[in-house]
Design goal:
The protein has 449 residues and is α/β, with parallel strands linked by helices. It is built from eleven helices and 17 strands. Residues 1-54, 56-76, 163-183, 268-276, 280-291 and 439-449 have low confidence and may be disordered.
């Protein structure tokens, strides 16, 4: 299957025209679609979120919940869908106990996405009907330690709906190859951290930097005495960032502590100044053996949804920084609330689902995903001779071996032929399948004549 074309002018117009349609998520409590005989479902009464603000509609410049026609809704209409990202840092040593009941609930309600459980809390992104997603969030917050989830809501446009509805007969939210999300699948993983940082001493449950509302962000980062730091990785920053922001040039969040030590000369110093992306930053950094305190700069940091800034700001405070600020709700909240005419954001924001990127108003961006390296690629990147759909892009072409590329081509051929990786046998060898079928036949009782 070929990649979907860049976002068209008509699609942008349709998105803008639909923005006024939704008054509130609470008013979109829909009856669930008629279940398939193969997928039993229960009707569950929706309970209000406890100690957390209810999911609400986006502001007038946001995206709409209006849906396109498809299976599963009344008179052929598909149910409205919403994407919700959430996290909560908490003391959660028995996190593994939540995995199975949470996964079962998501599957029962046909909510898709991914959730990470760790001793330090929960982090996830889910997609489903407003009623179903809100019920999952209610269930999570029945544990007092997880009450007060930080939630970012992104509605799904009619154009997004048109991509994937009708791909399966047993689910009202079946996936297609270029669908923004995998509507039929949820992953609940157990990990050491809900966001990998590599320093167990950093504890956002004890202290973090000061939250700055999106409406106050422009004033803070426009101050020349403020060092603005993008906490994300290189491939994310490459497609968009705030004006004046410093790029740490990290390939993973685990590299951020070392960058801070080196950039601000916290380990050792023989200079009172350092260069931040060509700009001289006066730090007053002195030798660690000196009795004088370090004069570290005011820092304003941001990330996609806010979770990485929780750890990064806690780390900076532990290192002796006095003024540490971070954007509440991250880039996504800023793009949702701040009109483009007033915005200091440049480019698009990378997101961790099949939308790949979003723009102001949380409209889907123009970038696609390279399935070789999972990095965003632009229309210009796809004109490069190093671009091969499903295989490689200009950013990974030289690092992938020919063997890896050939395996990727084989996977892509399987998907084009069968619609799933591996075809009907899901990639298992025909010989093993025949042997398995033979064993099954031997176990069947013989019929008498």
């Amino acid at each position: 299957m070929l990649p979907s074309p860049p976002l068209s002018v008509a699609r942008r117009a349709a998105t803008a025209a639909a923005r006024h349609l939704l008054p509130s998520i609470s008013s979109l409590i829909l009856d669930p679609p008629a279940p398939s005989p193969a997928v039993p479902r229960r009707r569950v009464r929706l309970m209000p979120l406890r100690n957390s603000a209810p999911l609400v509609s986006p502001p007038p410049h946001g995206r709409s919940f209006a849906v396109a026609a498809g299976d599963g809704g009344a008179e052929g209409e598909a149910p409205a869908l919403v994407v919700v990202s959430f996290y909560r840092f908490a003391d959660f040593p028995d996190h593994a106990d939540l995995r199975q009941p949470l996964k079962e609930l998501c599957e029962e309600l046909r909510v898709s996405g991914g959730i990470i459980l760790a001793p330090e809390g929960i982090n996830g992104s889910l997609c489903g009907t407003p009623e179903a997603v809100e019920k999952v969030l209610n269930f999570i917050q029945t544990d007092n330690r997880l009450k007060g989830l930080r939630v970012i809501q992104t509605p799904v446009t009619p154009e997004d709906e048109a991509i994937h509805h009708g791909h399966t007969s047993h689910s009202p939210v079946g996936p297609g190859e270029d669908a923004p999300f995998r509507w039929d699948h949820v992953r609940v993983k157990l990990k050491k951290e809900i966001v990998s940082f590599g320093d167990p001493g950093v504890m956002p449950t004890k202290r973090v930097g000061k939250y700055i509302k999106p409406k106050d962000w422009n004033s803070l980062i426009s101050d020349p005495d403020t060092v603005v730091i993008d906490v994300r990785n290189m491939y994310e920053i490459r497609i968009g960032k705030f004006k004046r922001a410093v790029d740490p040039c990290t390939e993973s969040f685990r590299e951020f502590p070392s960058w801070v030590d080196n950039q601000f000369q916290l380990a050792e110093s023989d200079s009172h100044q350092s260069s931040v992306n060509g700009n001289t930053v006066t730090e007053g950094a002195e030798d660690l053996n000196s009795s004088g305190p370090k004069e570290l700069p005011r820092v304003a940091m941001y990330c996609t949804g806010g979770i990485r800034c929780e750890k990064a700001s806690s780390f900076l405070l532990d290192k002796g920084f006095k003024e540490v600020y971070h954007l509440e709700g991250g880039i996504l909240k800023y793009l949702e609330e701040i009109p483009e005419a007033e915005s200091l954001w440049e480019g698009e924001c990378f997101v961790f689902d099949k939308r790949v990127s979003v723009e102001h108003g949380l409209a889907q961006g123009t970038h696609k995903l390279c399935y070789g390296c999972k990095q965003p690629v632009s229309d210009e990147d796809m004109e490069s001779p190093k671009w091969e759909y499903g295989v490689s892009c200009p950013y990974c072409f030289s690092t992938r071996s020919e063997e890896e590329k050939e395996r990727a081509r084989a996977r892509h051929r399987q998907f084009k032929t069968w619609g799933v990786i591996g075809g009907p046998d899901k990639g298992r060898s025909p010989k093993r399948l025949e042997a398995s079928d033979g064993v099954k036949e031997d176990k069947q009782p013989r019929n008498s004549v």
